[in-house]
């Protein structure tokens, strides 16, 4: 078993993958930079226990992190509590992807993991839309090159900003409203956020696809992927474990 950890700005996704790269168990944690390696170490042990896996069954670990303060915390937690020395995806890590960014070091490791998994599973050209703290759009060419993409505010980021900045707007549940014309403040916000993000997604995907060429598959992942995909005209696939599967492939490349 491989333990993969995707550390995002809002959530930390932990997954156990078997030798074929299939996700057997996964968990989503709140990202908290004040937690110590001991706290995360105990949580990781509890996850293994919940999955019925002993630490002796772990073949290794891999980390993708966009939160630098948490990277060494998880490295130490995995070493001390699980007895594994994880691969931290970053500059110099073998990924099999030719990054066409002007400065390849600027590309987040989660975006690279998404690109690796998407090309491996769907071929190219392919566009990955990841609905996280930020909504990221990544373009992978027909021959597997990472061409770049776009970054927009995430759904919860935008929703929280509305609540924080507009005194009379409440926190809302993100569910599909009955129609675009909201009859209440909550319905109006749901319409603007859900239908608005679907429209934004379609507009950006169409522009990226035109520049990328061919007929790219469009793969959505991240916490709100299914919600937006159900209203999108361009998303062809929803793949919630894409990042974890990409981390498995990267680990495999570096530890053949």
User: What's the helical proportion of residues?
Assistant: 25-40%
Radius of gyration over C-alpha positions, nearest whole angstrom: 19 Å
Give the overall shape: globular
Major sheet details: 5 strands, mixed
- Decide which structural class fits the backbone: alpha/beta
Strand content: 15-25%
CATH architecture of the largest domain: 2-Layer Sandwich
Biggest sheet, spatial arrangement of strands: 3-2-1-4-5
Question: What are the key terms here?
Answer:
globular, 7 helices, 23% strand, Nucleotidyltransferase, domain 5, alpha/beta, 2 domains, 256 residues, five-stranded mixed beta sheet
Describe the structure.
With about 260 residues, the chain is of the alpha/beta class. It folds into two domains: about 1-90, Nucleotidyltransferase, domain 5; about 105-110 and about 125-245, ATPase, nucleotide binding domain (Nucleotidyltransferase, domain 5, 2-Layer Sandwich). About 40% of the residues lie in helices and about 25% in strands. The chain has seven helices and ten strands. The protein has helices spanning about 35-50, 70-80, 110-120, 155-165, 185-210, 225-230, 240-255; strands spanning about 1-5, 10-15, 25-30, 60-65, 85-90, 125-130, 135-140, 145-155, 215-220, 235-240. The strands form two sheets. Strands 3-2-1-4-5 form a five-stranded mixed β-sheet, with helices on both faces. It has a five-stranded mixed β-sheet with strand order 8-7-6-9-10, sandwiched between helices. Strand 6 and strand 7 (about 135-140) form a beta hairpin. The longest helix has 28 residues, at about 185-210. The protein is globular and about 55 Å long. The chain starts with a strand and ends with a helix.
């Amino acid at each position: 078993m491989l333990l993969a950890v995707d550390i995002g700005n809002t959530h930390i996704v932990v997954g156990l993958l078997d030798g074929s790269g299939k996700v057997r168990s996964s968990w989503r944690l709140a990202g908290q930079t004040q937690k110590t390696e001991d706290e995360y170490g105990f949580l990781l042990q509890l996850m293994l226990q919940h999955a019925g896996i002993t630490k002796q069954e772990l073949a290794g670990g891999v980390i993708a992190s966009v939160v630098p303060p948490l990277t060494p915390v998880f490295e130490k937690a995995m070493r001390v509590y699980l007895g594994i020395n994880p691969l931290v995806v970053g500059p110099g890590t073998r990924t099999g992807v030719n990054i066409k960014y002007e400065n390849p070091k600027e590309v987040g490791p989660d975006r690279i993991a998404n690109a690796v998994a998407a090309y491996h599973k769907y071929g190219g050209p392919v566009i990955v839309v990841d609905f996280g703290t930020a909504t990221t759009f990544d373009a992978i060419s027909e021959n597997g090159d990472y061409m770049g993409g776009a970054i927009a505010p995430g759904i919860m980021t935008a929703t929280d900003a509305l609540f924080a900045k507009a005194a009379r707007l409440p926190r809302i549940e993100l569910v599909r409203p009955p129609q675009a014309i909201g009859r209440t403040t909550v319905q109006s916000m749901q319409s603007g956020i859900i239908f608005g993000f679907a429209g934004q997604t379609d507009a950006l995907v169409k522009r990226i696809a035109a520049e990328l060429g061919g007929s790219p598959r469009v793969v959505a992942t991240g916490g709100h992927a299914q919600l937006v995909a159900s209203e999108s005209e361009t998303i062809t696939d929803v793949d919630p474990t894409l990042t974890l599967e990409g981390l498995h492939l990267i680990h495999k490349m570096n530890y053949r």
